């Protein structure tokens, strides 16, 4: 198979030549080396399986995932059917035959190499049976990434980069499905994950500009943990150039808790949020959706997919347009986005999926804060209104354009070896300007400043993977090896202004003075990472072992010119080794206790300003990378014959090398440390065919475990970081009526609790706990003769609770979302 030359394969220096050779070698040998490796491993068409008795649907899904094959199923064929399980060594065809024995069904392989479930033949004509598949899965990833129905995913690839049953993954993974996103009316990725344990998805309140997801008490860099189709969204958390993907483009969201550098390279220790975009389907489906709601929120969206050429080529075109006001006066949100994709099956073993995304956000909503005095507590007996805008409409601007192109290439050489290559290029421009407050200038007036920036971001990632399925004696191996590369370049033209004047949040009166604009600096920020990783997933009877190791080479640099501090530049080169180990035992009764250890690192791409009091000059240096490590113990339970999953986990997480400045020093050191210990409980169950339940509880004990100096030289050792609650809990349930006079009606509701948190790292002021209620009501209008039409009403914060979601400091606190309503009309045809 011919590979395509990529820009990364054209080195301009010796170091780049070495890295380019490492990256391009798998591309050049993709058609030869795996075959040679496959021949060196004894050709094995059989694997060892240990699938317990239970639901036929669950058994087939698990078998397809472990065998690395596609399986298309009409759910009506397997409803309420049971399987006696599968134990021992089997080939793919033999395994399907054994699982389906006595069911009146059989699995046949089509021209694309996928397996279709059809009624057992009464004659030879059965080979021509055609069914519209409900689910179509990927090659070597099994059903870990495909479209699915309901709330309960059974497999995920986020923790292992290959299909793995959630019940047998030795790390905490939560999955938000497409149906959950739609039923809950999520208007952002952050909203979509709000019912997941261990997460704080609104550390900046009701803002919709970015998808902030703080996990397991790690609140710094909360936009640096987002992934799309297995690739890191290479925004720059030190600038305004952080990318955002509309939730209408997303098929599912997999949330991995804890450090994950062994497979993904640099990452935050709290975990990551992996989005899977909607992919082309070989069944024609079309959808048009219109929505209208609070704050004059208007949205139109469409989703078209189907085959183009005899089921060898399929397309998908998804688009969304939105225009809305905001709960803050004078603020607007606008978005125009489209995501086209094309899937080409060159053969039954080779598939290429091409993707693009074009998004224009002329207005990106509110992203400001207010002081704790007047929001968390009353100021002279008064509270600041949620609708108060402390900025200046004449200078408020945030216009973002972002584009993405990429592909996923999959090839299966045989039943033993498969290869995958994922590529993604991102481009973003941002023009921003904001007048913001920072505390009281007088008794009732807030002092205001201005910042603005013009930014350009270019980033690309490439991930090459080889997967081997083989046995050595009694051990069954799924070996994944990979070489990935990522590069990011951000150019920033940053400006500021003084003399903005004051504003009174209680009377609304503003006292502007003349702006004194000045150019603060131009900055070039670059990051380059190459990583080599290997992972072996081993099965021995009911034991599951996971071993992983990775070596990274990272270059980080920045250069400031025309700076008020003088021209500055620094570069950091580092090599980092990370590992992961896990063990799990899968009992026959569905219980699976596990333990794991994992590591992470994240380079510090932001320079620390160090002031020399002797010379009066500033020096900017890059600090050592932060490092993370986690021990986790847990128990998972999947009742036999169901897709329900109950998980309880205990974690002990540490993040070290936090930037710290002692009160007696004028420079920063990477000596700070944070520890987070806690328990997470999650239950996803369907006690009745028409009833879904999601419940979660989180307990966290988070503190600065080493000296960490904050504002006014206060030592924060032993304190809890801001935006972290000790207790969180949530419950969501919905029910769909199928019979009687209420047939076609769907009702749902949820409650979210966030406990007390600190407004500041010095732990001087507590934010009260809050409880929020959500509700939904839907109706299938085909029940009254309007085929394809459905209507839905979503209400968030039903009781209109006025609350502060979190604070970044005593001067920057963020109101949560006010009560809002959204009505949606959907037409499927």
Automatic annotation (TrEMBL):
**Bilayer topology annotation:** Multi-pass membrane protein
PROSITE patterns the UniProt entry points to:
TONB_DEPENDENT_REC_3 (PS52016)
Q: Where is the signal peptide?
A: 1-38
Q: Quick one: a GO biological-process term for this protein?
A: siderophore transport
Please verify whether the record's keywords include Iron: yes
Q: Which residues form the Secretin/TonB short N-terminal domain?
A: 69-120
Q: Pfam families of this UniProt entry?
A: Plug (PF07715), STN (PF07660), TonB_dep_Rec_b-barrel (PF00593)
Do you know which InterPro entries this protein is assigned to?
A: Beta-barrel_TonB, Beta-barrel_TonB_sf, Plug_dom, Plug_dom_sf, Secretin/TonB_short_N, TonB-dep_rcpt-like, TonB_sidphr_rcpt
Q: Which UniProt keywords apply?
A: Cell outer membrane, Ion transport, Iron, Iron transport, Membrane, Receptor, Signal, TonB box, Transmembrane, Transmembrane beta strand, Transport
The answer on whether this UniProt entry bears the keyword RNA-binding reads no
> Where found?
Cell outer membrane
Q: Which terms does the record give in the GO molecular function aspect?
A: siderophore uptake transmembrane transporter activity; signaling receptor activity
Q: Which SUPFAM superfamilies match?
A: Porins
Q: Name one GO cellular component term.
A: cell outer membrane
Family that this chain belongs to: Belongs to the TonB-dependent receptor family.
NCBIfam families the UniProt entry points to: TonB-siderophor
Q: What is this protein called?
A: Iron complex outermembrane recepter protein
Organism of provenance: Stutzerimonas xanthomarina DSM 18231
């Amino acid at each position: 198979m011919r590979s395509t030359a990529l820009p990364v394969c054209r080195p301009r220096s010796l170091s780049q030549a070495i890295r380019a050779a490492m990256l391009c070698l798998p591309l050049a040998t993709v058609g030869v080396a795996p075959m040679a490796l496959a021949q060196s491993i004894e050709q094995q068409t059989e694997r060892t399986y240990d699938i317990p008795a239970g639901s036929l649907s669950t058994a087939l899904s698990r078998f397809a995932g472990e065998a690395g094959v596609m399986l298309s199923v009409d759910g009506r064929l397997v409803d309420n059917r049971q399987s006696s399980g599968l134990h021992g060594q089997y080939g793919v065809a033999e395994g399907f035959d054994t699982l389906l024995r006595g069911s009146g069904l059989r699995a046949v392989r089509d021209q694309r190499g996928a397996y279709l479930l059809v009624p057992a033949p009464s004659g030879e004509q059965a080979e021509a049976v055609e069914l519209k598949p409900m689910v179509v899965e990927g090659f070597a990833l099994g059903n870990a990434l495909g479209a699915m129905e309901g709330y309960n995913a059974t497999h995920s690839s986020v923790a292992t980069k290959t299909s793995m049953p959630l019940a047998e993954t030795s790390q905490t993974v939560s999955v938000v499905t497409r149906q959950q996103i739609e039923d809950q009316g999520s208007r952002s990725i952050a909203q979509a994950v709000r019912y997941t344990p261990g997460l704080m998805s609104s550390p900046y309140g009701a803002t919709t500009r970015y998808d902030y997801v703080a996990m397991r008490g790690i609140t710094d860099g909360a936009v640096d943990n987002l992934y799309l189709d297995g690739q890191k969204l290479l925004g720059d958390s030190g600038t305004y150039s952080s990318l955002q993907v509309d939730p209408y483009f997303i098929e599912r969201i997999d949330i991995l808790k804890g450090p994950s550098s062994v497979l993904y390279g640099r990452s935050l220790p709290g975990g990551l949020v992996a989005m899977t975009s909607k992919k082309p389907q070989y069944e024609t489906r079309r959808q048009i959706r219109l929505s209208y709601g609070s704050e004059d929120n208007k949205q139109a969206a469409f989703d078209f997919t189907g085959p183009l050429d005899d089921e060898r080529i399929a397309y998908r075109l998804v688009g969304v347009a939105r225009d809305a006001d905001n709960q803050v006066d004078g603020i607007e949100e606008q978005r125009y986005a489209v995501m086209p994709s094309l899937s080409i099956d060159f053969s039954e073993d080779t598939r290429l999926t091409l993707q693009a995304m074009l998004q224009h956000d002329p207005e990106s909503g509110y992203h400001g804060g207010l002081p704790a005095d007047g929001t968390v507590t009353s100021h002279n007996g008064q509270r600041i209104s949620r609708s108060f805008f402390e900025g200046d409409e004449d200078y408020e601007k945030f216009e973002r354009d972002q584009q993405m192109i990429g592909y996923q290439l999959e090839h299966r050489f045989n039943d033993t070896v498969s290869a995958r290559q994922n590529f993604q290029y991102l481009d973003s421009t941002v023009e921003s300007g904001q007048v913001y407050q920072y505390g009281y200038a007088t008794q009732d007036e807030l002092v205001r400043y201005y910042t603005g920036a013009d930014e350009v971001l270019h980033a690309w990632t490439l991930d090459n993977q080889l997967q081997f399925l083989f046995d050595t004696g009694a051990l069954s191996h799924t070996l994944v090896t990979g070489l990935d590369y990522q590069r990011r370049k951000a150019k920033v033209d940053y400006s500021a202004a003084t003399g903005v004047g004051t504003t009174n949040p209680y009377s609304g009166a503003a006292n502007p003075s003349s702006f004194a604009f000045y150019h603060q600096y131009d900055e070039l920020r670059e990051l380059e990472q190459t990583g080599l990783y290997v992972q072996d997933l081993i099965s021995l009877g009911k034991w599951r072992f996971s071993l992983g190791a990775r070596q990274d080479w990272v270059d980080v640099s920045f250069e400031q010119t025309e700076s008020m501090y003088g021209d500055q530049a620094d570069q950091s080169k580092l090599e980092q080794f990370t590992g992961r180990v896990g063990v799990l035992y899968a009992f026959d009764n569905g219980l699976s206790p596990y333990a794991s250890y994992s590591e992470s690192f994240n380079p510090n791409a932001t320079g620390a300003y160090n002031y020399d009091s002797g010379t009066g000059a500033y020096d900017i240096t890059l600090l050592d990378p932060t490092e993370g490590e986690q021990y986790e113990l847990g128990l998972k339970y999947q009742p036999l014959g169901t897709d329900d999953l109950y998980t309880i986990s205990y974690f002990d997480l540490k993040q070290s090398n936090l930037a710290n400045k002692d009160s007696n020093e004028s420079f920063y050191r990477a000596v700070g440390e944070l520890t987070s210990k806690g328990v997470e409980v999650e239950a996803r169950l369907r006690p009745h065919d028409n009833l879904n339940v999601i419940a979660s509880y989180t307990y966290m004990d988070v503190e600065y475990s080493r000296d960490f100096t904050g504002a006014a030289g206060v030592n924060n050792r032993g304190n809890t970081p801001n935006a972290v609650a000790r207790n969180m809990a949530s419950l969501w349930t919905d029910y769909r009526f199928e019979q009687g006079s209420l047939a076609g009606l769907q009702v749902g509701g949820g409650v979210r609790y966030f406990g007390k948190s600190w407004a500041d790292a010095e732990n001087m002021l507590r934010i009260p706990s809050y409880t929020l209620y959500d509700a939904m009501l839907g109706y299938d209008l085909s029940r009254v003769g309007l085929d394809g039409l459905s209507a839905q009403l979503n209400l968030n914060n039903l009781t209109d609770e006025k609350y502060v979601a979190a604070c970044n400091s005593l001067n920057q606190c963020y109101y949560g979302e006010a009560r809002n309503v959204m009505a949606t009309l959907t037409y499927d045809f």
